[in-house]
Amino acid sequence: MKSKSLLKWSAIIGAVVIIGISLGTIGYIYTKVTEFEQVFAQNVYIEDLSVGGLTKEEAKLKLENMKESELKQQSIVLYKNEIKKQIACNELGITYNIDETINKAFELGHQESFFEKYRISKEGLANAQKFELTKTFSDEPIHNFIKENATFFYKEPVNASIERKNRQFFVTKEVEGEALDEEATFEKMAEALKEPDNELNELIEVEAVTKTVIPEYTEASFADVQTLISSFSTSYNNASANRNENLKVAAQKISRMLLPDEIFYLSNQLEPFTEAAGYKNAGVIVNGKIEDGLGGGVCQVASTLYNAVLLTDIEIVSRQNHSLPVAYVPLGRDATYATGVIDFKFKNNTGYPLFIEGYCENNKVYVNIYGHKDAIPEYDIKFDSVVTEVIPAPATKYEDDSTLEKGKEVVEIKALDGKRVKLYKLYYKNGVLEKKELVDTSYYKPRAAVIKRGTKEVVTNHTPATPTTPQATTPPTTVPEETETNPTGNEASIPIDDIPPSVNPDDLNNFEVIQQ
């Protein structure tokens, strides 16, 4: 009986022990499975990072740090020939699908049965599994980088040009330019960033895509602009070799091509008035007195150019007459120039390139304007200078001169009447006047005569003199001076550099400065 009771208790105790062990084992397994459910299975990789045993948060932090470090160390280089521009990849707004990849990788081993999870938690996955991150980036930083550096890849095109030497035209061929093709370059950079093989490269090199920039004016642009549109000349004499040299220098300086809608500034062509620029000292009349000044005579070139332009339909932007009539063009058809105060300007409104040619030959200043045949005026153009008012010269001014004997007078400056002039442009077709157009008005200031009177005492000899017949007072001697308008003369009147910059051009006639 006792034996049976002992066996019974032994069975009970054994069962309890087995149950205890089983419950302990199950508890252990449950704990391990529970822990496993919080981490990645072993043998799982995201790129080269083993995430086995890591929580999602731990894996994410490691991956973010890894990619941030990689992007800082990696740059993309945009190059073309010797030009290279570089930017770090972490400045390009690159991101990775870390969360998405983590969630996908985490599923491995976690979709199995309870006991299979336990097995995997101990042994890991039978075969290693690797996941790659997908790179994405914002377009804007790449576009901005390309735009900011586009100028470095830009090669300026060079227009063809035309010049005239020895009465012949010579055309210099254009040079094509180059510009960054921004859209094509963006596509190429984007492809390079997506390329898996570039992940391990510290430098990702991308050759910039460029496109040809055709110059606005090519050699062909000047094939049809060599027709003579107008020509004008003025005469000069050989009284001053320096003045004649200034005419040649100025005529050469105005010779140039003028593109459509471009404005010709006489100042840009003539300045600076220096010896280095080729100018000589020549007669300049300041307040009626002849003085030497660099560039004396250049206004004859300005007036010749003005008249050549008048013979066309070219738009005149700005023109000012001299303070006194000039000798080489009719009244109202002169143009003056003063540094910083007056400029002669006209605009090429023909729609085609023009070529201005200036030169001196056989004591004449010539200006020819060449362009397209369509720029030739359809009318024969003539002019009519109408004097609308004559302003009498002011009263004569007398100045004492101690170098002249008493009773003697010398006319230093001759009186000139002032004039108001209207210039009309007359348009003829087949000999018939079809229209009359006011071009401009000019005002030439009146000028008082200046006579010097002698104050020097006459030294008399104390020796008795033989009585003589009383002598008449010596009449005033006239100093040769510029004449009024005469197409064959060679003098010009012009306000020049010593006019204060603040002077209003409308008040220029308050100054009397004549450049011969």
TrEMBL record:
<feature type="compositionally biased region" description="Low complexity">
    <location>
        <begin position="458"/>
        <end position="492"/>
    </location>
</feature>
<dbReference type="InterPro" id="IPR007391">
    <property type="entry name" value="Vancomycin_resist_VanW"/>
</dbReference>
<protein>
    <submittedName>
        <fullName>VanW family protein</fullName>
    </submittedName>
</protein>
<dbReference type="Pfam" id="PF12229">
    <property type="entry name" value="PG_binding_4"/>
</dbReference>
<dbReference type="Pfam" id="PF07501">
    <property type="entry name" value="G5"/>
</dbReference>
<dbReference type="InterPro" id="IPR011098">
    <property type="entry name" value="G5_dom"/>
</dbReference>
<dbReference type="InterPro" id="IPR022029">
    <property type="entry name" value="YoaR-like_PG-bd"/>
</dbReference>
<feature type="domain" description="G5">
    <location>
        <begin position="376"/>
        <end position="457"/>
    </location>
</feature>
<feature type="region of interest" description="Disordered">
    <location>
        <begin position="455"/>
        <end position="509"/>
    </location>
</feature>
<feature type="transmembrane region" description="Helical">
    <location>
        <begin position="12"/>
        <end position="30"/>
    </location>
</feature>
<dbReference type="Pfam" id="PF04294">
    <property type="entry name" value="VanW"/>
</dbReference>
<keyword id="KW-0812">Transmembrane</keyword>
<keyword id="KW-1133">Transmembrane helix</keyword>
<keyword id="KW-0472">Membrane</keyword>
<dbReference type="InterPro" id="IPR052913">
    <property type="entry name" value="Glycopeptide_resist_protein"/>
</dbReference>
<keyword id="KW-0732">Signal</keyword>
